[in-house]
Amino acid sequence: MNTVDTIAALASGVNGAIAVLRLSGSEALKIAHRLIGPKIRLDGENTRKMMLVRIGFDHALAVYFKGPASYTGEDVVEFQCHGGAKVAKSVLDLLLSQDECRLAEPGEFTFRAFVNGKLDLVQSEAVADLIESDNDMAVKIASRQLDGLLSTRLKELRELLIFCLSECESRLDFPEENLDWDEELPEKIAGAVNQVQILLDSAKRGDIFRNGVKTVIVGKPNAGKSSLLNFLLGYERAIVTDIAGTTRDSLEEKIVLRNIPVRLIDTAGLRENAEAVEKIGIERSYKHLDEAQIVFWMLDASAPDCAELLEYCKKNENIIAVWNKCDLIDEKTILPELPVPSVRISVLNGSGLEALSDAFEAKVWGMDERNNESEFAVNARHAALLSEIKTILGEAIINCMEHEFELAAVQLHSAVRNLGFITGETADVDILGEIFSRFCIGK
User: Fold this and answer.
1) Distance of CA 155 to the CA centre of its chain
2) CB 333 within 8 A of CB 301
3) How far apart, in whole angstroms, are the C-alpha atoms of residue 190 and residue 396?
4) Which of 27, 219, 411, 436 is placed for a possible disulfide with 298 were both Cys, Cβ 3.0 to 4.6 Å?
């Protein structure tokens, strides 16, 4: 992406009440004044004020942000016009008809904010996370990272590593001098490793909030799989009948359970001697089962049969046994003991669903952390670089203890450089292009 052209794009959805169009670059104000006419000025005392203007055949509100005090760090003009698709397109076409203006590429506004020092790369990625967030916790984490919380942690880690690096290099530059060297250098690098580990520990939570937990409902026909899907969704998504084999293909829906985003998949009932079409659905059920992060294995409490579940438990521990139809048995009925968490429910009357939610939450986090909110959550790109940094620092500790300060310095240089890949300080053009290409046009 070049940062010379003036760019324009629709920065909101269409067919709502209002559509927002953004113009950014050195010619933004000139283009805006040309299109709205000479009677109204957006600069001077009107900077950052909403002005009623006519652009094309629409009446709109226009506001000018003088760089560098703008989102991109450049001169920016935004138009808020009526939200119909035709109206928005007509205004965008008018902007793009100007010789100095072109359509923005995906993520180009945020890319310019990064280039102009308004955001670092971690904050830029948080913009995309915020747009894509579909649950409260994901919004909070993205918002905190956009505010710079994770960036601050990384900056503190970088400062610590640079201090350790300076210690190593001073011992190389002045080997004969009796300087006041830090004798706890290995311990300080170990402290940096601990900080890296704290960041890495947030990766699982980040993946869950960004992508959701793939949760598969499996079991024999008529165990209540589709009924559970409908209950958790709150509406009739899957067809439910008393006929075994009603569900012949997998159904996937998104829900939020205990503030955890879930990709919930209902599957065809597992049984032998199925006819040809149903057999294809069962094959897909086993495929989803192998890929699942959490499994709700539905069992009929009125006709206990858990042989297949017991066999599958030998290779998958992320199972919750769900004894459904407990309204058909006495509360004192003893059900088979299982090597996985199990809950008793009745989808028919809604009993036991809180216990199922408890078991799900505990299985996701490994413990009950219902009231523990993450301050930040690194993404997969960050985690890969942090894992490499952790390995490098482990080697640097050993070299410091053995007084191999030249090797330790090389390793600390490498760790600092990898941190720069995370924040964007040392990221190359290809990495930046790949990251910003994931953004939508207009952001």
Assistant:
1) 22
2) yes
3) 9
4) 219
Domains parsed from the chain with CATH numbers = 6-119 (3.30.1360.120), 127-202+378-424 (1.20.120.430), 214-365 (3.40.50.300)
State if pTM tops 0.85. Answer: no
3-state secondary structure 254-272: EEEECCEEEEEEECCCCCC
CA distance 379 to 125: 9
| pLDDT of 273 | 64
Q: What percentage of the chain carries pLDDT values higher than 70?
A: 90
Nearest CA among 423, 438, 435 for reference residue 120: 423
Strand ranges for 46-141 from DSSP E? 51-55, 58-65, 76-82, 101-103
pLDDT band, residue 370 (cuts 50/70/90): very low
* CA-based nearest residue to 81, from 61, 101, 111: 61
| Inter-residue long-range contacts of 359-362, CB under 8 Å, 24+ positions, other chains counted | 359/320, 360/215, 360/257, 360/258, 360/260, 360/294, 360/296, 360/320, 361/257, 361/258, 361/260
Query: Is the pLDDT at 269 greater than 80, yes or no?
Result: no
| β 18-24/51-55 pair status | unpaired
How does pLDDT run across 103-148, given as a tens digit for each residue?
999 999 999 999 999 999 999 999 988 888 877 788 888 899 999 9
In one-letter notation, the amino acid at residue 170 is S
Residues 127 and 146: beta-carbon distance below 8 Å:
yes
Q: What is the pLDDT of residues 289-346, one digit of tens each?
A: 888 889 998 898 888 778 778 877 777 778 999 999 998 888 888 888 888 899 999 9
Tell me if 293 sits within 8 A of 318, measured CB to CB. Answer: yes
Cα 272 from Cα 59, distance rounded (Å): 67
Strand, helix or coil at 121? helix
Q: Quickly list H helices, 245-370.
A: 276-291, 307-312, 353-365
Q: What are phi and psi of 244, to 5 degrees?
A: -60, 135
Q: What is the pLDDT of residue 371?
A: 43
